[in-house]
From TrEMBL:
PROSITE patterns: FZ. It is found in: Secreted. Belongs to the secreted frizzled-related protein (sFRP) family. GO terms for cellular component: extracellular space. One of its GO terms (molecular function) is Wnt-protein binding. PANTHER family: FRIZZLED (PTHR11309), SECRETED FRIZZLED-RELATED PROTEIN 2 (PTHR11309:SF11). The keyword Disulfide bond applies. This is Secreted frizzled-related protein 5-like. GO terms for biological process: canonical Wnt signaling pathway; cell differentiation; non-canonical Wnt signaling pathway. Residues 1-18 form the signal peptide. The gene is szl. It comes from Gouania willdenowi (Blunt-snouted clingfish).
Length: 283
């Protein structure tokens, strides 16, 4: 009980979001339509939540939909846990906020992806408003700390150049000029609202691998499609698939950017010839 009152005093001294810690709350079942937080490990949530939302259908569920595109990018392994701790706080005797360290970790990993999707990290999620780990709060889990630091991250960028029916010399020059070249099959399902909107079918085939890791390349390129969704939508028509040859580079800041894209149709003999010639080609 003493721990609870200590936590209350700490939180009363903070301008914590839109939630009044003195107001009465109730426990409700997390509904099936609240898909973002349906599988977080508990079945009941507190209302009003820590964002001040008191109506599930009119406020909580619509607000959660705004965050789905970001979560699909996989920008941080605990982004869902952080957001759901605010939108659907666990219904316990104590109020369990996310720790400031968790907020900072998610913000630092996800703010750039959010910006690429046309949104800024919201003021209501200002990490200075959250408690230190000395208080009772949701902290980053140690099992998520061993993430390789040297793997490239997808860049937020303008659409790369798309060249249809390119000359042989242009394709070979692109293979020489950039760090890697690969082929992949993009598919855009016809169903409206399907997630993800674009997907990679089959294996990613390297023409030359450069600094990319073979085991990470599919996930990395899928993240690029989700972060640069507006551009990605222009690459494949709804309900269709398209085979692409893609070239790109890993930039000095550790991000992976695509540079030139060649849609590969059956009639494009130059691309097939360029791929065959590449193993003997001198740049």
């Amino acid at each position: 009980m003493a721990v609870f009152f200590t936590l209350v005093l700490v939180l009363l001294c903070r301008p914590m979001l839109a939630f009044d810690i003195g107001q009465s709350t109730r426990c409700v079942a997390i509904p099936s339509q609240f898909t973002m937080c349906k599988d977080v490990g508990y079945s009941e949530m507190r209302l009003p939540n820590f964002l001040g939302h008191s109506d599930l259908e009119a406020e909580v569920v619509p607000y959660s939909q705004e965050w789905k595109p970001l979560l699909l990018t996989g920008c941080h392994l605990q982004a869902q846990a952080f957001l759901c701790s605010l939108m659907a706080p666990v219904c316990l005797d104590n109020f369990i906020w996310p720790c400031r360290s968790l907020c900072i970790a998610v913000r630092d990993s996800c703010a750039s992806a959010l910006s690429c999707q046309g949104r800024q990290w919201p003021e209501v999620l200002d990490c200075d408003r959250f408690p230190d780990e000395d208080d009772m709060c949701l902290s980053p889990h140690s099992r998520f700390t061993h993430i390789p630091k040297d793997l490239p991250k997808p860049a937020c960028q303008n659409c790369p150049s798309v060249d249809g029916d390119p000359p042989l010399r242009v394709v070979l020059h692109s293979f020489c000029l950039y760090d890697f070249a690969l082929t992949l099959h993009l598919h855009r399902p016809r169903q409206i609202g399907r997630e993800p909107e674009l997907e990679i079918r089959g294996r990613v085939q390297f023409i030359h691998q450069g600094p990319l890791m073979a085991y990470d390349s599919r996930h990395l390129l899928q993240q690029w499609l989700l972060i640069n969704l507006k551009c990605a939508r222009s690459l494949v028509r709804l309900g269709r698939s398209q085979l692409y040859v893609m070239t790109g580079s890993v930039l000095p800041d550790g991000t992976m950017a695509l540079t030139r894209l060649f849609p590969w149709h059956k009639k494009d003999a130059n691309i097939a010839v360029a791929i065959r010639k590449w193993q003997y080609h001198r740049c």
